[in-house]
Amino acid sequence: MTDSPASRTAGYWLGVAFSVFACAGILAASVGAVVLINQTEPTAQTINAKRKSSALVETITVRRGTYRPKIEVLGTVQAAQEVNLRSRVSGQVVELSPGFVPGGMIRSGESLLKIDRADFENALSISRSELEQAEASLAIESGRQSLAEKELKMLQVTVDAANRALVLREPQIASIRAEVKAAEAAVERAQLDLDRTRIVAPFDAQVLTRAVHIGSQVGTGDDLGRLVGIDEYWVSAAVPVRSLRWIEFASAEGEQTGGTNSTLDDSAQPGSPATLHNVDAWGAGAERCGTVARMIGALDAQTRLARVLITVADPLAMTSKAPPLILGSLINVEIEGRPIEDVVRLPRDFLRDRDTVWVMRQNELQIRQADVVFRDARFVYVRDGLDHGDEVITTTLATVADGVALRKVDEETDGDDAEVVD
Protein backbone atom coordinates (compact mmCIF):
# COMPACT_ATOMS: atom_id res chain seq x y z
CA MET A 1 0.00 0.00 0.00
CA THR A 2 1.52 3.34 -1.04
CA ASP A 3 1.32 6.77 0.72
CA SER A 4 -0.98 9.32 -0.76
CA PRO A 5 0.44 12.67 -2.12
CA ALA A 6 -1.17 14.58 0.77
CA SER A 7 0.69 12.57 3.40
CA ARG A 8 4.05 13.06 1.66
CA THR A 9 3.60 16.87 1.51
CA ALA A 10 2.73 17.02 5.19
CA GLY A 11 5.88 15.06 6.10
CA TYR A 12 8.11 17.38 4.07
CA TRP A 13 6.82 20.52 5.74
CA LEU A 14 7.13 18.90 9.13
CA GLY A 15 10.89 18.28 8.48
CA VAL A 16 11.48 21.86 7.39
CA ALA A 17 9.78 23.21 10.49
CA PHE A 18 11.91 20.96 12.73
CA SER A 19 15.18 22.22 11.04
CA VAL A 20 14.16 25.85 11.48
CA PHE A 21 13.34 25.37 15.16
CA ALA A 22 16.68 23.57 15.70
CA CYS A 23 18.72 26.36 14.09
CA ALA A 24 16.84 29.01 16.04
CA GLY A 25 17.56 27.15 19.25
CA ILE A 26 21.29 26.91 18.53
CA LEU A 27 21.45 30.60 17.64
CA ALA A 28 19.60 31.59 20.79
CA ALA A 29 21.97 29.49 22.90
CA SER A 30 25.03 31.15 21.30
CA VAL A 31 23.68 34.64 21.90
CA GLY A 32 22.91 33.77 25.49
CA ALA A 33 26.46 32.46 26.02
CA VAL A 34 28.06 35.65 24.63
CA VAL A 35 25.85 37.84 26.80
CA LEU A 36 26.70 35.79 29.85
CA ILE A 37 30.47 36.04 29.20
CA ASN A 38 30.31 39.81 28.70
CA GLN A 39 28.41 40.27 31.95
CA THR A 40 30.70 38.13 34.06
CA GLU A 41 34.28 39.17 32.78
CA PRO A 42 36.44 41.47 35.01
CA THR A 43 36.41 45.20 34.25
CA ALA A 44 39.82 46.95 33.56
CA GLN A 45 40.39 50.06 35.65
CA THR A 46 42.39 52.98 34.15
CA ILE A 47 45.27 54.30 36.31
CA ASN A 48 46.30 57.88 35.63
CA ALA A 49 50.07 57.17 35.40
CA LYS A 50 52.88 57.80 32.89
CA ARG A 51 56.05 55.68 32.43
CA LYS A 52 59.27 57.54 31.66
CA SER A 53 62.25 55.47 30.28
CA SER A 54 65.93 56.57 30.38
CA ALA A 55 68.37 55.34 27.73
CA LEU A 56 71.56 53.80 29.06
CA VAL A 57 74.65 55.51 27.58
CA GLU A 58 78.41 55.74 28.01
CA THR A 59 80.20 59.10 27.82
CA ILE A 60 83.64 60.65 27.72
CA THR A 61 84.59 64.00 29.18
CA VAL A 62 86.29 66.32 26.67
CA ARG A 63 88.95 68.90 27.45
CA ARG A 64 89.70 72.13 25.64
CA GLY A 65 93.36 72.84 25.02
CA THR A 66 96.20 73.00 22.49
CA TYR A 67 96.83 69.89 20.37
CA ARG A 68 99.08 68.93 17.49
CA PRO A 69 97.27 66.95 14.78
CA LYS A 70 98.78 63.86 13.15
CA ILE A 71 98.78 63.86 9.36
CA GLU A 72 99.10 60.27 8.15
CA VAL A 73 100.23 59.80 4.54
CA LEU A 74 102.24 57.43 2.36
CA GLY A 75 105.80 58.17 1.25
CA THR A 76 108.50 56.71 -0.97
CA VAL A 77 112.10 56.36 0.20
CA GLN A 78 114.63 58.12 -2.06
CA ALA A 79 118.36 58.76 -1.97
CA ALA A 80 119.41 62.27 -0.99
CA GLN A 81 122.78 61.76 -2.75
CA GLU A 82 123.13 59.47 -5.73
CA VAL A 83 125.72 59.20 -8.48
CA ASN A 84 126.41 56.95 -11.45
CA LEU A 85 130.17 56.53 -11.70
CA ARG A 86 131.52 56.93 -15.23
CA SER A 87 135.05 56.65 -16.54
CA ARG A 88 136.72 59.85 -17.80
CA VAL A 89 139.56 57.97 -19.52
CA SER A 90 139.88 54.79 -21.55
CA GLY A 91 141.80 51.73 -20.48
CA GLN A 92 141.76 48.36 -18.79
CA VAL A 93 140.60 47.86 -15.20
CA VAL A 94 143.56 46.42 -13.25
CA GLU A 95 142.40 46.78 -9.64
CA LEU A 96 139.11 46.74 -7.69
CA SER A 97 138.52 47.67 -4.06
CA PRO A 98 137.11 44.86 -1.86
CA GLY A 99 134.33 47.24 -0.77
CA PHE A 100 133.29 48.02 -4.33
CA VAL A 101 130.59 45.35 -4.44
CA PRO A 102 126.76 45.67 -4.34
CA GLY A 103 125.81 46.51 -0.75
CA GLY A 104 129.35 47.49 0.19
CA MET A 105 130.02 50.54 2.38
CA ILE A 106 132.74 52.96 1.29
CA ARG A 107 134.10 56.19 2.70
CA SER A 108 134.66 59.49 0.96
CA GLY A 109 137.97 59.48 -0.96
CA GLU A 110 138.35 55.70 -0.82
CA SER A 111 139.74 54.14 -4.00
CA LEU A 112 137.17 52.02 -5.85
CA LEU A 113 139.07 50.87 -8.94
CA LYS A 114 142.17 51.62 -11.01
CA ILE A 115 142.69 51.70 -14.75
CA ASP A 116 146.02 50.74 -16.32
CA ARG A 117 148.35 53.77 -15.94
CA ALA A 118 151.12 52.85 -18.40
CA ASP A 119 149.83 54.76 -21.41
CA PHE A 120 149.06 57.83 -19.32
CA GLU A 121 152.47 57.80 -17.64
CA ASN A 122 154.08 57.72 -21.10
CA ALA A 123 151.91 60.60 -22.24
CA LEU A 124 152.93 62.57 -19.16
CA SER A 125 156.62 61.92 -19.85
CA ILE A 126 156.25 63.11 -23.44
CA SER A 127 154.43 66.25 -22.33
CA ARG A 128 157.12 67.03 -19.78
CA SER A 129 159.84 66.59 -22.43
CA GLU A 130 158.02 68.96 -24.74
CA LEU A 131 157.77 71.45 -21.91
CA GLU A 132 161.48 71.20 -21.20
CA GLN A 133 162.24 71.71 -24.89
CA ALA A 134 160.01 74.77 -25.02
CA GLU A 135 161.62 76.19 -21.88
CA ALA A 136 165.08 75.61 -23.40
CA SER A 137 164.07 77.42 -26.59
CA LEU A 138 162.78 80.28 -24.46
CA ALA A 139 166.12 80.48 -22.63
CA ILE A 140 168.06 80.53 -25.91
CA GLU A 141 165.86 83.22 -27.36
CA SER A 142 166.12 85.26 -24.16
CA GLY A 143 169.91 85.16 -24.54
CA ARG A 144 169.66 86.37 -28.13
CA GLN A 145 167.40 89.20 -27.04
CA SER A 146 169.90 90.25 -24.38
CA LEU A 147 172.71 90.29 -26.96
CA ALA A 148 170.59 92.37 -29.35
CA GLU A 149 169.96 94.95 -26.62
CA LYS A 150 173.70 95.32 -25.98
CA GLU A 151 174.45 95.73 -29.70
CA LEU A 152 171.73 98.35 -30.06
CA LYS A 153 173.20 100.35 -27.19
CA MET A 154 176.70 100.16 -28.65
CA LEU A 155 175.56 101.42 -32.07
CA GLN A 156 173.60 104.26 -30.51
CA VAL A 157 171.23 104.14 -33.41
CA THR A 158 167.79 105.68 -33.16
CA VAL A 159 165.04 103.38 -34.50
CA ASP A 160 161.27 103.56 -34.41
CA ALA A 161 159.18 101.35 -32.10
CA ALA A 162 158.27 98.80 -34.76
CA ASN A 163 161.81 98.20 -35.88
CA ARG A 164 163.06 98.24 -32.31
CA ALA A 165 160.69 95.31 -31.44
CA LEU A 166 162.08 93.37 -34.40
CA VAL A 167 165.67 94.13 -33.45
CA LEU A 168 165.08 92.99 -29.90
CA ARG A 169 163.38 89.77 -31.15
CA GLU A 170 160.20 90.41 -29.19
CA PRO A 171 157.92 88.47 -31.61
CA GLN A 172 160.18 85.42 -31.32
CA ILE A 173 160.11 85.66 -27.54
CA ALA A 174 156.29 85.89 -27.52
CA SER A 175 155.98 82.85 -29.81
CA ILE A 176 158.24 80.71 -27.69
CA ARG A 177 156.49 81.78 -24.47
CA ALA A 178 153.19 80.66 -26.02
CA GLU A 179 154.78 77.31 -26.79
CA VAL A 180 155.87 77.04 -23.19
CA LYS A 181 152.33 77.71 -21.94
CA ALA A 182 150.92 75.14 -24.33
CA ALA A 183 153.46 72.60 -23.13
CA GLU A 184 152.59 73.36 -19.50
CA ALA A 185 148.89 72.86 -20.26
CA ALA A 186 149.71 69.55 -21.99
CA VAL A 187 151.58 68.42 -18.86
CA GLU A 188 148.63 69.36 -16.66
CA ARG A 189 146.23 67.53 -18.96
CA ALA A 190 148.43 64.41 -18.97
CA GLN A 191 148.63 64.57 -15.18
CA LEU A 192 144.85 64.86 -14.93
CA ASP A 193 144.37 61.84 -17.19
CA LEU A 194 146.82 59.91 -15.07
CA ASP A 195 145.00 60.89 -11.87
CA ARG A 196 141.68 59.86 -13.42
CA THR A 197 142.86 56.29 -13.75
CA ARG A 198 142.07 56.01 -10.03
CA ILE A 199 138.30 56.23 -9.30
CA VAL A 200 137.48 57.36 -5.75
CA ALA A 201 134.23 57.66 -3.80
CA PRO A 202 132.91 61.26 -3.83
CA PHE A 203 131.13 60.83 -0.46
CA ASP A 204 130.33 58.24 2.18
CA ALA A 205 128.17 55.84 0.23
CA GLN A 206 126.73 52.40 -0.29
CA VAL A 207 127.34 50.57 -3.55
CA LEU A 208 124.11 49.63 -5.29
CA THR A 209 125.53 48.24 -8.53
CA ARG A 210 128.91 47.51 -10.11
CA ALA A 211 129.28 47.24 -13.89
CA VAL A 212 132.98 46.30 -14.30
CA HIS A 213 135.43 43.60 -13.26
CA ILE A 214 139.20 43.21 -13.32
CA GLY A 215 140.24 43.05 -16.96
CA SER A 216 137.22 45.00 -18.24
CA GLN A 217 138.00 47.44 -21.02
CA VAL A 218 136.31 50.76 -20.35
CA GLY A 219 135.97 53.83 -22.50
CA THR A 220 135.30 57.46 -21.75
CA GLY A 221 131.77 57.78 -20.36
CA ASP A 222 131.26 54.08 -19.67
CA ASP A 223 129.17 53.18 -16.60
CA LEU A 224 131.21 51.81 -13.68
CA GLY A 225 128.65 51.58 -10.88
CA ARG A 226 126.01 53.36 -8.83
CA LEU A 227 126.48 54.88 -5.38
CA VAL A 228 124.03 56.40 -2.88
CA GLY A 229 124.94 58.54 0.12
CA ILE A 230 124.45 57.02 3.56
CA ASP A 231 124.36 60.20 5.62
CA GLU A 232 120.76 61.03 4.75
CA TYR A 233 117.75 59.68 2.86
CA TRP A 234 114.64 61.49 1.65
CA VAL A 235 111.04 60.35 1.96
CA SER A 236 108.78 61.91 -0.66
CA ALA A 237 105.28 61.98 0.84
CA ALA A 238 102.00 62.86 -0.90
CA VAL A 239 99.92 65.22 1.26
CA PRO A 240 96.43 66.64 0.62
CA VAL A 241 96.61 70.33 -0.26
CA ARG A 242 94.21 71.22 2.58
CA SER A 243 96.70 69.81 5.10
CA LEU A 244 99.70 71.88 3.97
CA ARG A 245 98.87 74.84 6.20
CA TRP A 246 99.26 72.66 9.28
CA ILE A 247 102.78 71.49 8.35
CA GLU A 248 105.90 73.40 9.39
CA PHE A 249 108.70 73.50 6.82
CA ALA A 250 112.34 74.06 7.68
CA SER A 251 113.47 77.60 6.91
CA ALA A 252 116.54 79.76 7.38
CA GLU A 253 116.83 82.28 10.19
CA GLY A 254 115.93 85.70 8.92
CA GLU A 255 114.79 84.37 5.55
CA GLN A 256 112.39 86.65 3.73
CA THR A 257 109.54 85.06 1.85
CA GLY A 258 109.89 85.75 -1.84
CA GLY A 259 113.36 87.25 -1.46
CA THR A 260 115.98 86.60 -4.10
CA ASN A 261 118.97 86.51 -1.77
CA SER A 262 117.58 84.18 0.88
CA THR A 263 119.74 81.27 1.95
CA LEU A 264 118.53 77.89 3.08
CA ASP A 265 119.77 76.57 6.37
CA ASP A 266 117.56 73.72 7.54
CA SER A 267 119.13 73.77 11.00
CA ALA A 268 117.96 77.35 11.71
CA GLN A 269 114.29 76.37 12.08
CA PRO A 270 113.51 72.66 11.87
CA GLY A 271 110.32 71.52 10.22
CA SER A 272 107.56 69.36 11.65
CA PRO A 273 108.74 66.07 13.14
CA ALA A 274 107.67 62.94 11.28
CA THR A 275 107.44 59.33 12.42
CA LEU A 276 107.95 56.53 9.90
CA HIS A 277 106.37 53.07 10.14
CA ASN A 278 106.79 49.99 7.97
CA VAL A 279 105.03 47.08 9.63
CA ASP A 280 105.80 44.63 6.83
CA ALA A 281 109.56 45.23 6.92
CA TRP A 282 110.16 46.32 10.51
CA GLY A 283 107.36 44.68 12.46
CA ALA A 284 104.88 46.27 14.83
CA GLY A 285 106.21 48.95 17.16
CA ALA A 286 109.38 49.74 15.18
CA GLU A 287 109.69 53.29 13.88
CA ARG A 288 112.10 55.89 12.53
CA CYS A 289 112.14 59.64 13.04
CA GLY A 290 112.53 62.32 10.39
CA THR A 291 111.98 66.01 9.80
CA VAL A 292 109.91 67.78 7.16
CA ALA A 293 112.43 69.76 5.12
CA ARG A 294 110.60 71.41 2.25
CA MET A 295 107.68 71.25 -0.14
CA ILE A 296 108.09 70.28 -3.78
CA GLY A 297 106.48 73.10 -5.72
CA ALA A 298 104.23 71.04 -7.98
CA LEU A 299 101.21 68.78 -7.57
CA ASP A 300 101.35 65.16 -8.59
CA ALA A 301 99.86 64.94 -12.08
CA GLN A 302 97.75 61.85 -11.29
CA THR A 303 96.71 62.20 -7.65
CA ARG A 304 96.64 66.03 -7.50
CA LEU A 305 98.32 65.83 -4.11
CA ALA A 306 101.14 68.03 -2.89
CA ARG A 307 104.54 66.46 -2.21
CA VAL A 308 106.82 67.17 0.73
CA LEU A 309 110.35 65.96 1.42
CA ILE A 310 111.20 64.43 4.79
CA THR A 311 114.85 63.99 5.72
CA VAL A 312 116.02 60.99 7.71
CA ALA A 313 119.54 60.99 9.15
CA ASP A 314 121.58 57.78 9.36
CA PRO A 315 119.04 55.92 7.20
CA LEU A 316 120.92 52.61 7.32
CA ALA A 317 121.19 52.74 11.13
CA MET A 318 125.00 52.64 11.10
CA THR A 319 125.17 54.19 14.58
CA SER A 320 121.97 52.83 16.15
CA LYS A 321 119.79 49.77 16.41
CA ALA A 322 116.90 51.33 14.51
CA PRO A 323 115.53 49.52 11.42
CA PRO A 324 117.19 50.55 8.12
CA LEU A 325 115.34 52.27 5.31
CA ILE A 326 115.06 50.54 1.94
CA LEU A 327 115.27 52.69 -1.18
CA GLY A 328 112.11 52.68 -3.27
CA SER A 329 109.90 51.21 -0.55
CA LEU A 330 106.48 52.58 0.41
CA ILE A 331 106.34 53.71 4.02
CA ASN A 332 103.69 55.09 6.38
CA VAL A 333 104.44 58.63 7.47
CA GLU A 334 102.88 60.39 10.45
CA ILE A 335 103.62 64.13 10.37
CA GLU A 336 103.09 66.14 13.54
CA GLY A 337 101.32 69.33 12.50
CA ARG A 338 101.28 72.85 13.86
CA PRO A 339 99.66 73.33 17.28
CA ILE A 340 95.93 74.08 17.13
CA GLU A 341 95.01 76.27 20.07
CA ASP A 342 91.79 76.40 22.06
CA VAL A 343 90.06 73.37 20.55
CA VAL A 344 88.48 70.14 21.75
CA ARG A 345 90.04 66.95 20.42
CA LEU A 346 87.38 64.31 19.83
CA PRO A 347 87.71 60.77 18.42
CA ARG A 348 86.30 60.67 14.91
CA ASP A 349 83.86 57.87 15.74
CA PHE A 350 81.95 60.19 18.07
CA LEU A 351 81.33 62.86 15.44
CA ARG A 352 77.85 62.11 14.10
CA ASP A 353 76.15 62.82 10.79
CA ARG A 354 76.43 66.34 9.42
CA ASP A 355 79.16 67.19 11.95
CA THR A 356 76.91 66.93 14.98
CA VAL A 357 77.83 65.80 18.49
CA TRP A 358 75.63 64.10 21.09
CA VAL A 359 76.12 65.65 24.52
CA MET A 360 74.63 64.52 27.82
CA ARG A 361 73.58 67.48 29.91
CA GLN A 362 71.41 67.22 33.02
CA ASN A 363 70.56 63.63 32.07
CA GLU A 364 69.16 64.71 28.73
CA LEU A 365 70.40 64.46 25.15
CA GLN A 366 71.59 67.60 23.40
CA ILE A 367 72.44 67.56 19.70
CA ARG A 368 75.03 70.21 18.91
CA GLN A 369 76.54 71.39 15.64
CA ALA A 370 80.34 71.16 15.74
CA ASP A 371 82.73 73.59 14.04
CA VAL A 372 85.49 71.22 12.92
CA VAL A 373 88.83 72.95 12.32
CA PHE A 374 90.79 69.89 11.18
CA ARG A 375 90.41 66.14 10.85
CA ASP A 376 93.22 63.63 11.05
CA ALA A 377 93.06 59.85 10.90
CA ARG A 378 91.93 59.44 14.53
CA PHE A 379 90.56 62.75 15.83
CA VAL A 380 88.58 65.82 14.87
CA TYR A 381 89.48 69.19 16.34
CA VAL A 382 86.39 71.21 17.30
CA ARG A 383 86.55 74.98 17.74
CA ASP A 384 82.90 75.68 18.60
CA GLY A 385 80.06 73.43 19.70
CA LEU A 386 81.76 71.75 22.66
CA ASP A 387 82.88 73.23 25.95
CA HIS A 388 85.50 72.15 28.44
CA GLY A 389 84.09 69.34 30.60
CA ASP A 390 81.20 68.39 28.30
CA GLU A 391 80.17 64.74 28.39
CA VAL A 392 80.05 63.40 24.84
CA ILE A 393 77.94 60.28 24.29
CA THR A 394 79.83 57.36 22.82
CA THR A 395 76.87 54.97 22.64
CA THR A 396 74.83 54.61 19.47
CA LEU A 397 71.19 55.45 20.21
CA ALA A 398 68.09 54.14 18.40
CA THR A 399 66.10 57.29 19.15
CA VAL A 400 67.90 60.58 18.64
CA ALA A 401 66.15 63.81 19.58
CA ASP A 402 66.79 66.75 21.84
CA GLY A 403 65.55 66.14 25.36
CA VAL A 404 65.65 62.32 25.33
CA ALA A 405 66.20 61.11 28.89
CA LEU A 406 69.59 59.53 29.50
CA ARG A 407 71.32 57.64 32.26
CA LYS A 408 74.95 56.53 32.49
CA VAL A 409 75.69 52.84 32.48
CA ASP A 410 77.91 53.09 35.54
CA GLU A 411 75.33 54.91 37.64
CA GLU A 412 73.88 52.96 40.58
CA THR A 413 70.08 52.76 40.46
CA ASP A 414 67.46 51.61 42.97
CA GLY A 415 64.57 49.43 41.89
CA ASP A 416 63.40 49.34 38.31
CA ASP A 417 65.26 50.90 35.39
CA ALA A 418 62.07 52.87 34.67
CA GLU A 419 60.47 55.49 36.87
CA VAL A 420 56.70 55.71 37.30
CA VAL A 421 55.27 59.12 38.15
CA ASP A 422 51.69 60.15 38.84
Main features:
disordered C terminus, four-stranded antiparallel beta sheet, alpha+beta, six-stranded antiparallel beta barrel, 5 helices, 422 residues, 26 strands, Elongation Factor Tu (Ef-tu), domain 3, conserved putative lor/sdh protein from methanococcus maripaludis s2 fold
User: What is the helix tally?
Assistant: 5
Q: Tell me the total number of β-strands.
A: 26
Number of domains: 3
- The share of residues in helices is 25-40%
Tell me about the biggest sheet? 6 strands, antiparallel, barrel
What is the arithmetic mean of pLDDT?
Answer: 82
Concise synopsis of the structure shown:
This protein has 422 residues and is an alpha+beta fold. Helix content is 26%, strand content 32%. A hairpin with a 3-residue loop joins strand 22 (371-375) and strand 23 (379-384).
Describe the overall structure.
The structure is a single chain. The protein has helices at 5-40, 118-155, 161-167, 170-195, 279-282, and strands at residues 50-52, 55-57, 59-61, 64-67, 70-79, 82-86, 91-96, 105-106, 111-115, 198-200, 205-210, 217-218, 223-229, 232-239, 273-277, 288-296, 306-313, 330-336, 340-347, 356-361, 364-369, 371-375, 379-384, 391-393, 406-408, 419-421. Strands 5-14-17-16-15-18 form a six-stranded antiparallel beta barrel. A four-stranded antiparallel β-sheet has the order 3-24-20-21, with no helix packed on it. The protein has three domains: 56-65 and 341-421, conserved putative lor/sdh protein from methanococcus maripaludis s2 fold, CATH 2.40.420; 71-80 and 231-252 and 265-338, Elongation Factor Tu (Ef-tu), domain 3, CATH 2.40.30.170; 83-227, no CATH class. A hairpin with a 3-residue loop joins strand 22 and strand 23 (379-384). It has 422 residues and is α+β, with helices and mostly antiparallel strands. Helices cover 26% and strands 32% of the residues. The protein is elongated, with a radius of gyration of 50 Å.
